[in-house]
Structures are given as structure tokens and as C-alpha cells.
Input
Amino acid sequence: MDTPLFQPIPGMVDLTAPEVLLWQHLEEQARQLLPLYGFSEIRTPALEYTPVFTRSLGETTDVVQKEMYTFADRGGRSLTLRPEGTAGVIRYAAGQGAAAEGARLYYLGPMFRCERPQAGRKRQFHQLGVESFGEPNPAADVEVIALQQHLFQSWGLHAFTIDINTRGLPEDRPAVTAGLAAAARPHLDALCADCRRRFDTNIFRLLDCKQAACRQVVDTLPDPASFMSAPSRVYLAEVVRLLQGLNLPVRVNPRLVRGLDYYIHTVWEIRHPALGAQDALSGGGRYRVTLDTKPFDGVGFAAGLERAVMAVQHDQPDRLAALQPPRPVWLVALGPAAREANLRLAQELRQGGCACGLDLGDRSLKAQLRAANRVGAAWAVLRGDRELAAGTATLKNLQDGTQVELPLADVVTKLNAVKGRGTTS
Ligand code: HAM
Output
């Protein structure tokens, strides 16, 4: 089979204007907001040693079992393209020892999961994530949920809902697993093949299977929190109480399970109706990860930027149009001397903050004006040998066709004042 040379790999996309403008806008807003909460940026490598992920996400999770891009380097060591951002940030922070205590880090970048591509589900996708390190504390979880709500509001999103739940303390897990297994065992035959496997390996994952038959069984299962110890239930109650104090509307959803195993206590997911089947805009929670011997605690979330862009386009349909770049001024040269002079003029205008384009070849006046129209220029500046000798230029309004010859310095002043926009004073 021929390898297509002009197409990206399925599930990976080329991102270009105009949509990329919305990405830049969301990223800029996040970069302004996150420092208000004390977060600074970290950029970790996209490639890590495989155990960084297997030890933190959990060997039995779908991500580790089916979705990682893993290969051996030349020395035979197993490497993995990061399927999410938390594990690499923990790898960094855990390596810093005491210096990382209480660290607050955010990241923004591509992640890789070998999933079946569909709308809102890509093989290379982008996450904006935050991680706040420290011992379990309901107030820390609530602060991160509030930050996430603030971020989404700053993006102009309003149609989202927040579901939260608890995974309880790690020491509760045997009791919860036993309780759920006892309730699910009589229905084993009704479950899909994946869930029959999950019944033995990771029974929590039964709870978020999308198959109709499995959902029917799940509806009959007791709330996992009913098998948890008092400290786990008290922790969730305190998170809910503090969220209410901030007027943050959340729904406690006992069926919410996150797909990663590092979570303890609070987990949450934000959904948006514009996203269809892949409706999770972001997910997060409190985690405890042991990479070598020492457990590492923190809380965080990650939002999928592909999905955030879809949601913003739904909630704010006019947003993208408002982000169009400035219309450039187009410099038209009549003859080689003017062409060379225009190269200098273009730099002068750009250094004054005015978007500017010019014909670099030797094309006719008509062809140059056509190029100006193609890029949506509002103004053209025309010069030939006569104007060069006189120190003037013709400023042409490309919207109404009017034109005026002015001293070059006046043309520059005018264009710098309007930054290429359609009107001059
Ligand atoms: P996650 O739920 O696996 O959590 O992913 C977070 C978000 O990334 C999802 O809600 C979704 O918006 C986006 N996402 C995930 N997979 C894809 C995909 N294949 N295509 C497009 N978007 C996708 C995590 O990754 C955790 N590390 C979050 C976290 C940070 N928990 C604590 N700290």
C-alpha cells in the first residue's frame, strides 16, 4: 500500500488559519489567567521512558493497555509518546525533591493516544493542564475546580456542567472492589467482552462503559462510596460544602469514574453539549503516584483544546470573526527602483506596527492590485520612478477606489495611525 505523502496520519491534523487564531486566543487567555492562581509554565518532553506512564496511569487502564505509542530506542529502552501531561510533570517534580513541595505548574502541548479517530477524538490532541502538588486537602481540590470554571468562563463558555465524585482512599479499594464485584457477578453474562475483562482487572471501569447492555447492569449497582471508609466520604462532603460556598454548581455523580488509575478522593469531569459523543471538555482529580518508592500527591485537571475550540465555536459563534488579523497595506512598485525602495518601506511600516505586504517579483500593475485584493488589503501604496524622484507616493483606498498623492512621510504617518485598517482620519 502506498504511503500518502501529502496527508497527515489519520487522527492527526494540520491546524491553520483561520481556526488557529481561536487556538492562539484561548492559549493567550489561559496564559494570563493561570499566573493569578500562582501557576507557572512547564514544558516537559513529548517522549518519556515508558514506566513514567505505566507506573502512574496504571497497568490496567485502556490508555496503557491499548492507546500508547510505544517503541524501543536504539539501545532497546522502551519509550512512549506522552498520552497525557500529568505523569511527565510528576516525573519532573518528584525528581526535584523538597524543592517541588507546593509547586504549581501548567502545561500546554500535544498528547498522543492511538485511539479510533472520530469527531473530538484525535490521535494527536492538545491539552492545557495544571498540577498543584501537596498533601490531600479538600480546599486545594476546590481551588483547582474554581480555577477551571474561571478559565472556561474567560473563554466565553457557559453551557458546561461539572460532575464530581470520589475514588476514595487507596486503602478503601479492596472493599469497594469486593462490593461492586459481589453486586455485578450475577450479571456477568450480560456484560460486553471488555467489561468481563474489566471485572477481573479493574472493576471501576465497568461504571463508565458506554454499551447499552452494560449500562443496564451498572444502573443496578450500588454507589461505590457506600463501601468506602468514613474519611473518604467526609472528604467528598467537605469538597461539596466548599464548592457550595463559592457558588460553584456541581453535580455529585456516583457513576463518574476517570479512565486513569492514579486518582484518589476527588475526581471530576466537565461536559459540554456541543461535543456529541466525546463530550468531556476536561477531566481532573486528586492523585497519588509512586514512581519509585515515595508517593507523590497532587491535584489537577487537563482540558482538551480541540474540544474547547469546538465548544467556544458553539457558545460564541462570532468569536472567530472578531479575531481576524489586521488587513495589510499592499505596496505596489512600478519599476525595479521602486521595488527595491518598497522593500525598505515595508520594513519601516512593519516596525511601526502596520501589517504590510508587497510584490517581490516583476509583475504588472494589474497583477499587483489583484494580489492586494486577494489578501484583503484596505490600502495600496503605489510608486514608480517619478514618485521616487519627487519623494511622494499614491495612497489608494481599495474599498472605494479613491486615491491621493502625498509626500511619502505623510503616507507612512497615516498608515501607521490606522495600522492598515479600512479608514483614515
Ligand atoms: P483525560 O480525561 O484522559 O485526563 O484527558 C483530559 C482531556 O483531554 C479530556 O477531557 C479531553 O478533553 C481531552 N482528550 C483526551 N483524549 C483525547 C483525544 N483522543 N482526542 C481529543 N481530546 C482528548 C487526563 O489526561 C489527566 N492527565 C487529567 C489530569 C490532570 N488529572 C489530574 N491532572
Summary: Residues 84-86, 113, 115, 120-122, 125, 127, 129, 131, 259-260, 280-285, 287, 300-304, 306-307 surround histidyl-adenosine monophosphate (CB under 6 Å).
